[in-house]
Amino acid sequence: MDHEIRAVAYGSTRRLILEPVVDLHVHYYTDDYVSAILSADTIKTYRRGDGRLVAKWISGVALTVVDPHPGPAERVEMMDELGIETQVLSVPSPNAYFLAPEPAEQLARNVNHQFAEISRGHPGRFESLAMLPLHDVDRSLGVLEYSLHELGQKGAMILSNVNGTPLDDPGFEPFWEAANDMDLLVYVHPTVPDAPHHDENALAIAVGFFSETTLLVARLAYSGVFERYPRIRWVFSHLGGTLPLVLTRLDSYWRQFEDCRERAPKPPTVYARNLVFDTASKHGPAVQCAIDTLGMDRLVFGSDYPHVPGGTGPYLEALQPFVASSAQRSDVLAGRARRLLSGERI
Predict the structure, then answer these.
(1) Nearest alpha carbon to residue 204 among 190, 192, 188
(2) Could you tell me where the DSSP H helices lie in 83-198?
(3) pLDDT digits over 214-228, tens only?
(4) Could you tell me the pTM of the whole model?
(5) Is CATH 3.20.20.140 the right assignment for the domain spanning 21-341?
(6) pLDDT at site 1
(7) How many CB atoms neighbour CB 106 within 10 A?
(8) What phi and psi values does residue 23 have, to the nearest 5 degrees?
(9) What is the mean pLDDT of residues 101-128?
(10) What is the DSSP code string of 275-335?
(11) Nearest-angstrom CA–CA distance, 36 and 30
């Protein structure tokens, strides 16, 4: 694949010198999934002026879906233009959590099957992460087992809370135990917070998503989930939300408050060294802050395609100044993602 590629940014074309890319943060909405969103009593939908379907759930905007939705053929064309070797498909907020457990399981199995069909139809171009009805742990474990061993999915995408319940709640311990035994790739995507003051101005998705990721990493650290289940291979979205700005602050309060240390023998910074974060940001200073705080060696490429206008190109452009060496480019843009998908720890 040609390493001199085109990065399409808001209608303009410029050339960048980049390695082939594995995009770990990519979303795909099947027709069945969109139909479930449209028919759900718990979700309010409307069409934006640009044709996107907007879904409001719990505290505000949880999802915007491009319409018409880019299918495999359109994606492959774009991927070839930009040098993207593989997209890793997943379903973010609201995942299957907006349905009762039984129909949520049925929807998850349906979507996972369709993802597997896309992968089989385009070898090497698409992989996927399993969708799980995590508000029912037993059902989720059944779906996960089938998705990994029968469908060949590479891990699971879950949300930062489950209908308002934080992921360090004791009810999820059986899931973490199983995930730890499996060395599971767990990709955590933010969702709407179970909190007021996010409904207007799309604040749930604009601000709440980032605070959700930051809050979750803090909770998983302080509650001892990271300590008890060290074999889980965690990936968090969007440079960790605002985590790069507050990570040392979390360490400070770990030292100051005894209850922060009751289940976490190490400060949050130590646990963060074993986490992975995707680079889904177009803001260069934010990328720089994540590199300085989390480390270049903890980053993998992600673009949040197809949610943000401009597509994948601007995310490659934002990252370009920070990957000076060929080894850095290879690791961030593809190498680490390939290793994660093959079952390795990074």
Answers:
(1) 192
(2) 101-121, 137-149, 173-182
(3) 999 999 999 999 999
(4) 0.94
(5) yes
(6) 31
(7) 17
(8) -95, 105
(9) 98
(10) -EEE-----HHHHHHHHHHH-GGGEE----BTSSTT-SHHHHHHHGGG--SHHHHHIIIII
(11) 10
